[in-house]
Design a protein that fits this description.
This protein is mostly helical. It has one domain. The longest helix is centred in the C-terminal third of the chain and has 46 residues. It is globular, with a radius of gyration of 22 Å.
């Protein structure tokens, strides 16, 4: 037991763990000083993928917890129709499209950010969501219908805050001017729609091909 305790103590005091904690704390600096924060995040290597994954995990976790613990005044959940895996995918899929789309476009137009940096900065920009939504989830159970507007405003602020941080983050890691950054933000959203359209066509072709071979197999068995 004593040896195990010493091992655990060494882990908590290890340089890697301390760097993880520092990089996680740095997200608080990023959301209050976005220009300097997101520059240092990638150019000064103040961020880590472990911290970025943690922020993304907390964002998804809070989204799920909101379904269960937010007052029915604000959210009505039909649990029999809810697929939790599809719900999680509805968060990860747009995030993946954003990261890939932004990286692909900016690479063609002198963007400095790498794919991993786009992912890391985007995850760090999500920090306001779990920070605001967790206490707001608890608060929702103590307010009345007349105070619902206050809840909606605060919830909206967390989303707008995160969105503005994403835009600021992309400008800093790609070293774009404000106008060019806004242009590529819109272009990335358009690229996301294009990728969705291509994926729909691809899966439609796959499903039609599978259906064709199934019908061909049935016809073969029928003739035998």
């Amino acid at each position: 037991m004593e040896a195990k305790a010493k091992t655990n103590f060494r882990f908590w005091q290890s340089r890697g763990f301390q760097k993880y904690i520092d990089s996680l704390k740095f997200s608080l600096y990023c959301i209050t000083h976005p220009l300097d924060g997101f520059w240092d995040l990638t150019h000064e290597k103040r961020g880590t993928y472990a911290a970025a994954n943690t922020i993304l995990f907390l964002t998804i976790l809070i989204r799920i917890l909101k379904l269960r613990y937010t007052s029915f005044i604000f959210i009505t959940v039909y649990w029999e129709d809810l697929n939790i895996f599809l719900y999680i995918a509805s968060i990860l899929f747009p995030l993946s499209l954003w990261v890939v789309g932004n990286w692909a476009l900016t690479t063609l137009f002198d963007g400095k950010g790498r794919l991993g940096q786009v992912y890391m900065a985007t995850c760090y920009a999500l920090t306001p969501y779990p920070l605001v939504q967790l206490p707001l989830m608890v608060f929702s159970n103590f307010v009345t219908v007349d105070e619902a507007e206050f809840y909606s405003v605060i919830s909206g602020i967390s989303l707008v805050w995160a969105a503005l941080l994403v835009i600021a983050a992309m400008g800093q890691i790609h070293e774009y001017s404000g106008g060019k950054n806004l242009l590529f933000t819109v272009a990335t959203l358009f690229a996301m729609l294009v990728m969705i359209f291509i994926l729909m066509i691809f899966f439609s072709m796959i499903s039609q091909g599978v259906a064709y071979f199934i019908s061909l197999g049935k016809e073969f068995l029928f003739r035998i």
